[in-house]
Amino acid sequence: MVTAQLGDGSGPATVENILFELFLAGNNTPVATQSGIANTFNFNPAALAQGHYTLRVTFDAAGNPGCVQPIEAEFEVRKVGCGNFPWNGSASAEPCTTEGLLPVTISNGPGAPYTLYVSDSDNSAGILWSGIGDVLGLPNYPVYGSALLDFGGESNTEILVLETAGNFAAQLCDGLVAKGCNDWYLPSFGELEAIYQQLGPNGNNSISEGKYWSSSEQGSIYVWSIDFTNQVPYLEFKDSSIRCRCVRK
Question: What pTM value is reported for the model?
Answer without folding.
Answer: 0.65
